[in-house]
Structure formats: structure tokens, C-alpha cells
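Complex record, two chains
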Amino acid sequence: MAWNPDDPGLRAQLRGLRIASRRASPLRGGGQHRGRDRGAGLEFSQYRGYEPGDEPRRIDWKLYARSDRFFVREAERDSPLAVWVLLDASASMSQADESRPDLSRLDAARTFAACIAEIALRQGDRAGLAALREDALALVPAAAGTRQRERLLFALRGTGAGGGAPAAERLRPLWERIAADDVVVVLGDFLDPVLPELALRLAAARREVLAIQLLTVAERDFPFDDGRRFIDPESGQALPGDARALRAGFLARFGEAQRALHARFAEAGIRSVVHVLDEPVLRPLQALFGGGTRGGGA
Amino acid sequence: MNPMLLAPAGLAALAALALPLLIHLARRQQQRPTVFAALRWLSARPRPRRRLRFDEPWLLAVRLLLVALLALLLAHPVLQGTEDARPRLLVAPGVEPAQVQAARAEAGADARWLAPGFPGLDQPPSASGDGGASLLREFDAALPPEAPLTVLVPRRWQGGDGARLQLSRPVEWRIAGEGTAEEPLERAAPRMAIRYDAAHRAAAGFLRAAAVAWQEADTEGPDSAASAQLPGPEPDVLAWLHAGAPPPEVLGWAGEGGQLLLPMEAELPDGLVAMVAWRDATGAPLLQVAPFGRGRVAQWLRPLAPAQLPQLLEPDFAVALQRLLLPPAAPTLVAASDYHPGTGAAAAPAASIDLRPWLALAIALLALLERWLATSRRRGAMA
């Protein structure tokens, strides 16, 4: 299997990396990140029946008025920073190269997701995951702790690529979960406009957005030189053609489109890097998380 | 040296050249499905101009060459004009040796005897010049049209036949020897020697009468003796009237070219196939004749007595017997000056070298090369 989240070598290399929000100011407060908690336990977790010894001020009086019973609001201790991984799980992510058919785009994306979660959890932040598919939105709420790591890895293992890009209303839970100033890392091929648009809107709504674009070697080099039927995995469209004749035009247009996309990202304040499948995994991570606010880009 | 095709219609097989081209094109057109998510940037241009291209050009070249050679093989290629057009000199047997040498030194050409097999002049000349005209026609037909031909014949040539000589080329017709061909030919009357035993004394009388009738009036009588001795001066016909098989020396004489006449009681040598040469008016056989060596053996099929053979008493018996035993020879002797060959015979088709065996060899080698190329390619693709 090409994706191994427990690769000890990779985990060791993550040690020097750190996720930091550009919006966080070291001058405010003593914590590592700027937090929004103005008291204890603002992030609601659950209601629990009153037990002797509980502080009376933690009783939810409005609920007592409705139900005539004492309930205690329990809240989680909030970490100041939540790191969300937005994983594109459309069919195009299953594309792999002919030179290495066992390593798909999705495998690389899962590796990145696992690494980012590892970094975030290691520095005590919360990590969450959302895998975006046309038919389902697999969501792991942001949380901290060792068990969260297992939950994320389990969710990643179960993630398969298929279908097209999700519709806008399917993305609504994201807006409810991802709070302002959260860090959002978007992993995808960005060939479909849905995910880039989402990233731009998140960035416009004061979320700290990072983007890792995953491209195959074929998209970078177009190494075909014989007759091919190119098939789009999402729409099913087919284009027969002689690869040698198509190469120059494709490379020019594709490069132009990608440059325009990354320029839009940069305008919106999104730091983005391009990862081609035959490159080392660590390079984009170092570009994004290695040197504070140093931005990558295509 | 000009190559040509004997069956140009075979070149229609060149249409098969399309087969390897199609094979190599068809591979090009079979397109591998490729998952490619960035299709949007591929289809921006309407349809890519597709150039005609072929896979594995070397293998294709070998296959095309193979098909072309096969078509050429069907067209039966030959190489013409490889014969030498040196001048030839033919010498008829009978020319004086000194003149042969002189002509040979002068011509400096390929000189041969006008004899069966056309041996070179360094071989001894064959004895007879029989069939000279026929041999000359044969040599002319086998000779390249542009080779000049010189024929050296004696003034009296023993080689003519019933037709005028007509060759495909003008011939330098040289007549060797001085004098004129008009000298009269003398043909001596045939002489018959008769040897008989006691039982054939009466029969010998009839033959002696015939022999006397052959001779001129004033010559001496025929050589007739009641003995078993061979006659001294060689006669034209020997009537050996003894019962049983003739002795070997008599047969040997006949094999040398003599005409041997045997009675009914004699035994023919083994293996002789005789044909009836004389029948009476009712068709009953009277005399059979068999070739023997260069001579002939004739045998009576009836006793030589008037009771059994009434023809003995016929007035033309002697003439009939002479015609049977000594048939007149075909007139082959011609005056060379009157026998100058004319032209007008159709030139024989020029000999040519058949290129097909070499072509087949080349095809076999190419086929091996093609197999090697094809299989090694496949092996390389599998590895």
C-alpha cells in the first residue's frame, strides 16, 4: 500500500514542522495561539444531570425552566486553534500515473492529511477532517488527543474517491463547523472549480486557508506519445487523439490555467503549493509549515 | 545486361504492399484508454491533425521489402544480354588442315567444328560431315543475334539437305580449297561377294546372276566361292550362304558398315530387331533387314528356290535386290558456292539468366530477418 500513515521515518521528519495561524499574534496573551475563549468551556459538549458538588452557576437555568430538572452544561476545554483538513474525494482523485499505478492522487492526499493531523495533534491543537464527495460529506469534528488521531486515520482509511464535486448545499455543514480563524488545509487537484471556489470563500470569510494541489506526472509532463483515448473519470467524457500532437497545446493551456488559479489564491491570501506525485511528500509540508509564514506557490 | 520481367502481370501482387502498411497503421489507431482528469485543457483545440505514422519502421521496411520481392518473384525476372557476342568460326569437317589453321589464326575467334556438340578445333575433326546444314541452323539459333558468324566449308560439302540454308543473320561463307566443284562424280557399280556351303550351291547361282546383272558388261564375274573365307577386296554386299550363326569376323565386317545377306537357315545375332523389307503381292514376307552397327544384316525368310520364292525368276529381281540392299543415299553433297546461306529465319529468343533462385534465397533470408526482428521486439516489450 502506497499510503502508510504509520511510516516512522515520515513521522520523524514531521518533528520540525509547526502549524501556525497567520492571524495569531504572539503579542496577545501568553498562549501559543490567539484564542477566542472568554471563559471556561464555551464549546458546548453535552448536558448532564446535576450531581451534588457541581457548581450552581453551571446549572442551565433556562432548561430548568422548561423541564423542571437540573442539568449541568458540560463544555470541552477549547484549544485555541482548530486545523481542518478538507479532502477532495471526487473521482479525479483516483487518478494515478502509468509509471506508478499504485500511488493515486488520493493516496498522496491521505498522506498529507495524516501528516497535518499528526502535526496539529502533536502541538496540542484540534484537528478535523472533511472528505468532500458528490454523494456524501464525511466529517470528523475537530478534536484533540490521541484518540482523535486514531479517529482521523480510521476515517482516512475508509475514504474512497468517486463521483463528481459536491453541490453547494452539501457544503453547508462545513460553514457550521469551521469557525473563523481556524486553519483550513485544502487537499485536491483543483481541476474542478468547486473546491477552489470553496477555498476562496473560506478565505474571504476570515478562515486561514492553505492549499496543496496534487498533480500527476502526466499533467506536468504529458509523457504520452501514442494514440490515446483520454477519459475524464468524473464526467465520463472521452477524447481520442494522438498524444504527440496534443502535448504542446495541453502543456501551454494547462500551465496557464494553473498559474491563473494560484494567482487568485495568492490574491485571496491563500498559501498554495503544488505537489506532483513523483516528488517527496515532505517538500510541500516544509513549504507550508516549515518556516512560519513563508508562503509556497506554484 | 538488361533485367526484364517475363510475367509483368505478377507485379499486380505489389498491391499486397498495403497489408504490412495496414498492419502497422492499425496498431497506431488502437488507442489505449487513459484516465485523465485534466480533459478540459485537452479538448480546447477542436481535433488534432493526425499525421500518418507507422510503428516500428524497421520491421515495416523489412516486411515491405519482403512483399515486394515476392511480387517480383511472381513476375519471373530474368537477366538478359549476358551472352558473349564474340565472333564465331565454324569449320566443316573436310577442310584441309592447313586452311583450318590459317583461318583460325586469322579469325582469332571462338572456333569450332561443325559437328555434333560443336567441339573446339583442338579436338580431332569428326569423320563425316553429315547433317552439316542442320547443325549450322542449330548453332545459329543458339547464338546471340549480334555475334558475327563465319563458316568455313570445303568446296564440295557433304552437309547439304533438301532445304536452302536460311539463318537469322548474314554469315560470312568461306569456301576452302581451289578448283571447281563441277568435276563429275563417279559411282562404281556395287559388287557382291558370295560365300556358300554345299547346301546352298543352287541358291548361290541366283544371287550370282543378280550380281552379274549389277556389273558393267565388260567386267569380270562376281567373287563367288564355296568356302567360308572372307573375300579379299571388300565388296559392297556379302552373301553368306551358310546355315547357323555367321562367324564373328563376318559379323564384325557387317558392323563396320557392310551389307550382310543371310539365308533363311542362318541365325541372326541375339538382340537384333529386324523389320520386313520385301513382301510379295499377297503381303507375305520375303526379306527382313536389321541395322547392325554401321552396317545392316538382311535375311531371306524363304528358301532361295524358285518354288518357294518365285521372285527369283522375275526379270527385275536384280534391281529390286540392289534397291533393298543398297538404297540410294540422300543427296547431301553440294557445291558450297551454290549453298550460300540466306537470311530471314526468325532469330531465336535470346538466352537469359533466371533470377528466381537468387530471389528466393533473398526472400528466405529476409523472412528470417523479419522473424528475428518481430520476435525480438516482442520479447523486449514483454521484458
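Note: Chain B has eight helices and 19 strands.
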